[in-house]
Amino acid sequence: MDWDNLRIFLAIARAGQILGAAKTLGLNHATVARRLDALEEELGTKLFERRTNGMILTSYGENMMMRVERMESELLQADASLPATGAALTGMVRIGAPDGFGTFHLAPALAKLANQHPGLTIQLVPLPRTFSLSRREADIVVTIERPKLGRAIVKKLTDYSLSVYAAKSYQNRTGNIATPDDLRDKLFITYVEDITYSRALDYTADLAKLMPRHYECGSVVAQMEAVRAGEGIGILHDYAAARYPDLTRILPDMRFNRTYWLMSHPDTHETRRVAVTYHAIVESVAGARASFLRPV
Q1: Residue 253, C-beta contacts closer than 8 angstroms, at least 6 positions apart
Q2: Partner of 160 for a Cys bridge, out of 71, 93, 265, 292, CB 3.0 to 4.6 A?
Q3: Is 160 helix (H, G, I), strand (E, B) or coil?
């Protein structure tokens, strides 16, 4: 049985469609469809039900997927156990990370790593979504909640803090903000509640009650820029806000602490490209640890 055909089968099962698998594998749509047809013909059974909304595994396909994933895991572990030869680092590593951490910390750190290893392609996806390690949607994931279930290597990366901020220009225009009562007529710049992906982001509830007027942004960067523009009040990451002297922390007694967790899959954790990227992330945070928690 051709491993390439099995690899293509696995990509289709994970993507739920031939086109998505083709993009992941860097192949054209026709090639992927043809290799799947060849595998099903060899096995003498259908692995998928073709539907208008995607590819659904048959019962035989589900059984086959478990077996092929075990084969893949063995191959990955065998690769990880090979001694380092000094060969250039190659391949792709995808990192899923929260918007703020990805933009304000990881982006420059990983760009430096990519420069050091020309054969390594690093994908940083700082989007508010969940990545599945088991389905190989990402090799490394940074999250703000420690996972309770699943097979993953989990490491506490760092605690971090958020505070209430306004632009200096905003305070010059509206007057000093010394107490929570001073917020009542202000615009609250915050996230879009409908698309939040973690309960750890629920730190805005008290301020939302004080400031019924909201401007809601789907990204941390957008919130930051709206506050910097002098249009309202926002809760911002301290390590990001420290970059901008035009921002002032107000109501210093109001602070929110959260934690970043780093996750990787045990089957790929020790592969060279993942291990090097993983350790680069850990080292970058360790070198900047003092900036993540602002003193009270």
Answers
A1: 296
A2: 292
A3: strand
In the numeric block, which tokens belong to residue 112?
Answer: 């430096």
List phi, psi (to 5°) of 99: -50, -50
Tokens for 120, please give them.
């390594």
Mean pLDDT of the chain: 85
Strand order in the sheet with 214-217: 120-125, 91-96, 140-143, 247-264, 153-167, 233-237, 188-191, 214-217
Core vs surface per residue 249-278: b (16+ CB within 10 A) or e: bbbeeebbebebbbbbbebbbbbbbbbebb
Q: State the chain's maximal CA–CA distance in angstroms.
A: 76
CA–CA separation, 175 vs 161, rounded Å? 26
Q: Is the pLDDT of residue 60 over 70?
A: yes
Between 145 and 230, whose confidence is greater? 230
What band does 259 get if pLDDT is binned at 50, 70 and 90? very high
